Amino acid sequence: MSQKTPRNFFKPLAIGAPEPMRDLPVKIERMIHFVPPHLDKVRAKVPDMAPKVDVILANLEDAIPADAKDAARAGAIEMANMYDWQGKGTGFWSRVNPLNSPWFQDDVSELVLKAGHQLDVIMLPKVEGPWDIHFADQYVAQLEAKAGLTRPILFHAILETAQGMSLVEEIALASPRMQGISLGPADLAADRKMKTTRVGGGHPFYRVLEDPHADGSERASVQQDLWHYTIARMVDACRMAGINAFYGPFGDISDLDACEQQFRNAFLLGCAGAWSLHPNQIDIAKRVFSPDPDEVKFARRILEAMPDGTGVAMLDGKMQDDATWKQAKVIADLADLVAA
Ligand code: GLV
Ligand code: MG
Question: Does 36 sit in the ligand 1 pocket, CB within 6 Å?
Answer without folding.
Answer: no
